[in-house]
Amino acid sequence: MVNMTIVLGLALLWYAKPGLIKKSWYGITAGMICIFVLFIWGVHLDPIKMSSGVFRYGMIPEEREILFHKDGKTSTVDLYRIGEEQLVLSTNGKPDASVGLSENISGDEVTQILIGALPMAVHRNTKNVACIGIGSGMTSHIVLTNSEIENVDVIEIEKAMVQAAKGFGSRVEKTFNDPRCHIYIGDAKTFFINHQKSYDIIISEPSNPWVSGVASLFTREFYHQVKNHLTDRGIFTQWIQLYEISTPLVASVIKALSSEFQDYILYFMDEGNILLIASQEEISYLNLNNILNIPTLKDELHRIHITSIHEIALRRLGSKNQLDPLFQSYEIAANSDYFPILDIYAVSSRYLMQSASELYNLKRLPGFNLNLLKNDHSIIQLLSVNRKSNFLLSHDTNNAILIYRYFKKLSENETLETEIMEKSVLQTIRNFRSIYYQPHVQELTKGWLPFLHEMADYTLPYLSDNEMKNIWQDLHSVSIFSEFPDTVKNWIGLYESLGSQDYRSVCNFVYRMIPAKGEIKNSFSNNRILIYAMLSHNALHQYSMAIKLFERYEEQVKYPIEIRYLKEQAEQALGKNEKR
After folding, report:
1. Inter-CA distances, 452 with 397, 494, 495, Å
2. CA-CA distance, 87 to 100, in Å (whole number)?
3. Spatial contact of 119 and 235, defined as CB atoms under 8 Å apart
4. Do residues 156 and 305 touch, judged by C-beta distance below 8 A?
5. d(Cα 78, Cα 492) in Å, to the nearest integer?
6. How far apart are CA 330 and CA 254, in angstroms?
7. What tens digit of pLDDT does each residue of 174-216 get?
8. How far is CA 301 from CA 149, 201, 308, 460, 530, in A?
9. 370 has a pLDDT exceeding 60
10. Number of CB atoms found within 10 A of residue 358's CB
11. Given the DSSP bridges, would you call strands 263-270 and 273-279 parallel, antiparallel or unpaired?
């Protein structure tokens, strides 16, 4: 490539200066050759520095061993080892895939495994699968653990990525050694045009959309194209990251996908990655036994601490019917080849270090993880969640379980399990129970009420009414309970009503705490009150009441996503009722 550049430069110089005498031309050529030779012999391009990704991290990590380095046609690809912990594959210095060594789990493994496993829990009798982007090769490897799969086509635009991925060895061996797997080097759009094949599952796992050219794989036109290559009940799966991207940009992608598919379900892989499973039919069937009964796949799931269907159920955020009102509310166009919103703004979003992680806050709405906002009304059996899971929601759920067990054993005068609690959890319990030692009830509003809010945050999103009873009973046992200020009593009553899903009572307590008329000011307490009030009105199908409360709320440039979600949910329901 360098040689061609020099020859091209000399040719342009000859064309631009035809009057140069022969001796001058010989001198210029000789000088260029000398510079080139000096560059080859004198300049050392350090692979560690070239793969460092200093533009992202502001530092050059030295503790890595480069195992593969190649300048491909579209990107520079590296495979390196970080100590004895993990192998990382990067493109242009940006990590795109990783695999943990021995028992260590890398940051990407959960996503790489689940993006291959979950579609097979949705689609029955899967035979043909296409994977867009090879990454580490683990996703296609996971798909191939299913013996019923007859064919897997992997489409990768950069040949050097395929060469590097082989370095992950036995963790991805089926991708390279299984005769059912076929790897194609080329652009995904071109592949589908040239190969008129239909697939039961198409998995799209490209690089981050701010990488040049990648955003075109998140457009409405691309989704229309892949939809035409799905079987009648085919499933399309799209990975999207929540880091280095804004919520409106995520909404732009989901708008594009939603316009082409009748239904989708959104799952959290972890706090920074989501998975959209889309279909032309309503997705109502999720047979997790399909994947938990495959021995090799079961081992991979156990490795990332997924040992039951409840661990996967916790990751579900919602379906198209539940989430589309939220995403459609953002004033941003659906990402398209003709309106390339993502391509234009993804880079600035990345450098501004924006995040769409606020979507995760919806999982902390009381009742969201039980049965309030889910159509299937299935209650998660919290006690079966794996304690070793790295998923934050699983971690929070386990903390809630420990709090439940603490108060249950306390009520039964049994030995408390404080030794297995995190310091912050134990401190929350002690702060909450400090009410027993409060000598002045007039100090409770400022001195103890924050501890009540903290306990509610730790427990209400995760525990059922029955599991909350011992906590409330302990509080009611305080000798000065009857003397509590009205503000404190109202908050206790509101939280108890939320826990029991008595939404009429929630509304009664709410209207005791907010002004009867006028604007509702933006504050910590008022935000909570408004969220719980709107949530309760929606649960009672009192959608106009939810909207009226929102209209009284102090206008803001950006509302908390919980309020935005509940407002859009109410407006959607009102719109449907008007059409009827």
Report:
1. 18, 11, 9
2. 6
3. yes
4. no
5. 56
6. 11
7. 999 999 999 999 999 999 999 989 999 999 999 888 887 888 9
8. 19, 20, 9, 28, 40
9. no
10. 15
11. antiparallel
Nearest to 114 by CA among 242, 203, 208: 203
As given in the structure block, the two tokens for residue 407 are 């108060």
Q: Which residue has the tokens 């440039």?
A: 557
Q: Which of the 8 DSSP states describes residue 438?
A: -
Structure tokens at 555: 């206008």
| Crossing angle (nearest 10°) for helices 320-328 and 561-579 | 110
β-bridge mates for residue 86, sequence order: 82, 100
CA distance 137 to 168: 8
Q: How confident is the model at residue 102 (pLDDT cuts 50, 70, 90)?
A: confident
C-alpha 106 chain-centroid distance = 16
Summarize pLDDT for 383-431 with one digit per residue, the tens.
Answer: 456 667 778 888 888 899 899 999 999 999 888 888 888 899 999 999 9
User: In which band, very low, low, confident or very high, does the pLDDT at 75 lie, cut at 50, 70 and 90?
Assistant: confident
Half-sphere exposure of 495 (CA within 13 A, CB side): 25
With residue 535 as reference, give the H or E element that holds it: helix 524-539
Q: Is the pTM of this model over 0.85?
A: yes
Give the separation between CA 534 and CA 540, rounded to whole angstroms. 10
Burial label, 577 (beta-carbon count in 10 A; 0-12, 13-18, 19+): exposed
Provide the strand spans (E) within 46-143: 65-71, 76-82, 86-91, 94-100, 128-132
Cβ atoms 117, 269 nearer than 8 A = no
CA distances from 122 to 201, 235, 563 (A): 10, 8, 31
Tell me which amino acid residue 397 is.
T
What whole-number distance in Å separates Cα of residue 528 and Cα of residue 524?
Answer: 7
